[in-house]
Write a structure and sequence with these properties.
- Helix content is 39%, strand content 16%.
- The protein has 299 residues and is α/β, with parallel strands linked by helices.
- Strand 1 and strand 2 form a beta hairpin.
Length: 299
């Protein structure tokens, strides 16, 4: 790993470092020469306080100062744990993702990295409470998408996201999960075995270092990566105000296709998807409705 890349990754391990902070620092100091002399203002104090878990007694948490050596040691362990770090300056970084607003400075990745190059990708998101209708729709639409080589991107949440990953795998396809928090802290717990399985044969990505615990704001912010990786986003079921609609809005703002599954006016989980269709999302009744759009984009 070259010196600059290591410094950039190092910087991302400091608590409370925002996207804009990194941007401004790189503008002032493009090679990050000054990194180790930096005073990064945290929300409460100058010192980098992290929770270090005492391994003999996980419940005893002690605060320690975060020294460069500790971070170097963490970064060295990623290789041992087969975690790759792809920065925005690396050639493996997906082009689609570079075009979004505030693209992640780095992706911490575990699994099959060749999936990043595979096109076309379709983001599939929806309610955490999937109804039978949503499940049936995935069963109907996925086999043909997968057969045509579409890679499924989702967020490893309960409900529609989980079904999207599972049905991609079940149909012999490929799938990428973009998670909130770091790779060592899979959320929700119910999806740990799915995530572990995906780290072997598929791909799990996060913009946060592996030891980052998921925070509430990580969820909406990772949605820009889910839609950013893909040519289009399919919303299966969503209430009128939901995280899935945030993902759809990111897709619209990046000029990507938005597909929406229509539903009953009596089903609250179709409120959001029907509204998207009113706003111009493409109504989807089968795989062809999606394939004709994302194929055109890529040929």
């Amino acid at each position: 790993m070259d010196d600059f890349k290591e410094k950039l990754i190092h910087l991302l391990h400091y608590p409370n470092v925002s996207w804009t902070f990194v941007f401004n620092l790189l503008k002032r100091d493009p090679t990050l020469q000054s990194l180790y002399q930096l005073q990064i203002p945290t929300s409460k104090q100058q010192n980098f306080l992290v929770r270090a878990i005492n391994h003999d007694n996980p419940s005893a948490q002690t605060s320690i100062l975060l020294h460069p050596e500790i971070i170097h040691e963490q970064i060295r362990q990623y290789k041992t744990n087969d975690i790759a770090v792809i920065t925005i300056f690396d050639k493996e970084y997906p082009n689609n993702l570079k075009e979004i607003y505030q693209p992640p400075w780095a992706l911490f990745a575990k699994g099959d990295l060749t999936l990043l190059e595979k096109e076309p990708k379709l983001a599939v998101v929806g309610s955490r409470q999937a109804t039978q209708y949503g499940k049936n729709a995935i069963r109907l639409i996925f086999p043909e998408l997968i057969e045509q080589g579409v890679l499924i991107v989702s967020g490893l949440a309960m409900g529609i996201d989980t079904l999207a990953h599972e049905h991609a795998i079940k149909n012999g396809g490929q799938t990428i999960a973009v998670i909130a928090g770091g790779i060592y802290h899979i959320y929700p717990k119910e999806n740990i075995s799915l995530a572990v399985n995906m780290m072997k044969t598929q791909l799990v990505l996060s913009e946060y270092p592996p030891d980052t615990k998921p925070q509430r704001w990580h969820f909406p912010s990772r949605n820009r990566i889910i839609s950013g990786l893909a040519a289009g986003t399919l919303i299966i079921e969503a209430k009128r105000k939901s995280g899935s609609l945030i993902t759809a809005n990111f897709a619209v703002n990046e000029g990507r296709d938005v597909f929406s599954l229509p539903g009953s006016i009596f089903n609250p989980y179709s409120g959001g998807t029907n509204e998207l269709i009113q706003q111009g999302a493409k109504l989807v009744t089968n795989a062809k409705d999606i394939l004709e759009e994302i194929r055109i984009d890529h040929h």
